[in-house]
Amino acid sequence: MLKPGVLNRRLVGEVISRFEKKGLKLVALKMMQISPELASKHYAEHNGKDFYNALVSYITSAPVVAMVWQGDDCVQIVRKMVGATSPAKAEPGTIRGDYCMHTNHNIIHASDSDESAAREISLFFKDEEIFDWEDNAENWF
Predict the structure, then answer these.
(1) 109 classed as catalytic
(2) pTM, rounded to two decimals
(3) Contact 40/56 with Cβ under 8 angstroms?
(4) Span between the terminal Cα atoms of the chain, in Å
(5) CB 136, CB 79: distance < 8 Å
(6) What's the angle, vertex CA 9, arms to CA 22 and CA 85, rounded to 5?
(7) Catalytic residue among 42, 102, 105, 109
(8) Which residues contact 39 (CB under 8 A, 6 or more apart)?
(9) For an engineered disulfide with 4, which of 27, 35, 62, 140 has Cβ 3.0 to 4.6 Å away?
(10) How far is CA 62 from CA 31, 59, 135, in A?
(11) How far is CA 41 from the centre of its chain?
């Protein structure tokens, strides 16, 4: 998910382009305004932590771009491309390392496991909004 900072900084295409260039397949894409109720479901594991309210406030402050990507070892690859949650620890060349300055205004969310991905996808997409299309890229090159 591309968080409000990506939209505000006009980086949506840049970030999506990185995943496409890696070879991942985009199967769902939606710009949406997250409600406080949906944010509380998404961040349920953080409820009660000192940063929880700031997370909810930020994610609901402007639209986000929710996405579903497919590919071999997709979760691990995306996590590596995204980089460490702390911008100070995120390596240059990662999305957070290149575009993020503050943890509380993190610009991207990536699921940390296949199970989390399945849960999060069901929060943001209906089955009919996901298109598992046939990738014929090799026919174009």
Answers:
(1) yes
(2) 0.91
(3) yes
(4) 30
(5) no
(6) 60
(7) 109
(8) 55, 56, 59, 60
(9) 62
(10) 10, 7, 33
(11) 16
Contacts of 30 (CB under 8 A, 6+ apart): 65, 66, 67, 124, 125, 129
Which residue reads 């014929």 in tokens? 136
Contacts of 89 (CB under 8 A, 6+ apart): none
Residues linked to residue 68 through DSSP beta bridges, in sequence order = 28
Compute CA distances 115 → 2, 47, 82, 118, whole Å.
20, 19, 18, 5
- H/E segment holding residue 120: helix 114-124
Q: State yes or no: pLDDT of 105 exceeds 90.
A: no
- The dihedral of CA 45, 64, 122, 40: what is its sign? positive
Report, in this order, helix, strand and coil percent for the chain, each rounded to 5: 50, 15, 40
Q: What is the DSSP letter of 66?
A: E
pLDDT digit string (tens) for 48-97?
Answer: 999 999 999 999 999 999 999 999 999 999 999 999 999 899 999 999 99
Would you say 46 and 55 are in contact if contact means Cβ atoms under 8 Å apart?
A: yes
